[in-house]
Amino acid sequence: MTIQIKRTNSSDQNFINLVKELDDFLTIRNGESDDFFSQFNGLEDLNHAIVIYVGATPIGCGAIKQYNSTTVEIKRMYISKQYQGKSLGIHILTALEIWAKELGNTRCILETGTMLPEAIRFYEKNNYIRIPNYDQYIDVAESVCFEKQL
Question: Which of 49, 55, 67, 94 has the lowest CB atom count within 10 Å?
Fold first, then answer.
């Protein structure tokens, strides 16, 4: 399996297509909470996006968004259903962390939901530490927030 990682931005058509798949997946998983979460997942201001390919096929994506002068927020992490469970997400996460460091950041933060236990396990396995919910996720019972020092 030949894996290729492309740095891009949110106007990349493969990134847009993968985010559409992600949104369809999350609509099912999030249920009644989907409208709340989807309002924070726009593609604007995502100038640092990654698409991962197997051969010529785009199979996953992720992005970082500047949160403050030393921190980026990881957004829109996704692997297409047929490639999930094959440890490919680590390639996206590592590439995003490297890019964040190159941009001068020392910390990554992110939010995921309690309805995504596989995502929670993934971030914990990759040394993300649970933190109090931040910003719009404060007091949202379905939100779980993490950080990692780079």
Answer: 55
